[in-house]
Write a structure and sequence with these properties.
The protein is of the alpha+beta class. It has three helices and seven strands; from the N terminus they run H-E-E-H-E-H-E-E-E-E. The chain has one domain (about 5-140).
Length: about 160
């Protein structure tokens, strides 16, 4: 499976899971150097949970010789159109958590990575006042320069096969 293929399968799974459950539980699906595909889910309630899960994923990926993975994570996001607006929002986060910020958007973030490349994007979660929630069209964020976080770069050097 290529990086593009694992990314596409993550996008498809997110749509299916959201339609069935109204949410997507945190999930990583990784491919080993012998072609096995292994899914992992984990609860992420606190920053401590996130750090522990990230360290556990790195350990499992190393032990199982992971060569690529796709992650599906629900998240609150804040988007800005200028660097100045971004800096203002960042300063506000010292006072207001993202989940309480009036400009927040709910999304399912999907990222696929190997040692050399990454792809990312998201579905916005649209929650109408009445009716079932739904997902927006997929937004590719692979060209964004601001991609960082606890669950990025989980593979060690030398673990990717092409």
């Amino acid at each position: 499976m290529t990086l593009d293929e694992i990314f596409k399968s993550g996008k498809q799974f997110a749509k299916i899971a959201f339609k069935a459950q109204g949410q997507v539980y945190p999930m990583w699906i990784f491919e080993t150097d012998d072609g096995r595909h292994i899914p992992i889910t984990a609860p992420l309630e606190t920053m401590v949970d996130k750090q522990r899960v990230a360290e556990a994923l790195k350990t499992v990926f190393r032990k199982e010789k992971a060569v690529r993975y796709v992650a599906l994570l629900e998240a609150w996001i804040l988007e800005t159109s200028t660097k100045e607006a971004g800096e203002k929002v960042l300063s506000e986060l010292d006072i207001i958590p993202v989940r309480e910020h009036p400009q927040k958007k709910e999304a399912i973030f999907i990222t696929a990575q190997d040692k050399y490349h990454s792809k990312s994007g998201l579905y916005y979660i649209i929650r109408p006042k009445s009716g079932k929630p739904r997902l927006s069209r997929f937004k590719d964020t692979s060209t964004s320069q601001e991609m960082e976080g606890t669950f990025m770069d989980l593979l060690e050097s030398g673990q990717t096969i092409q």
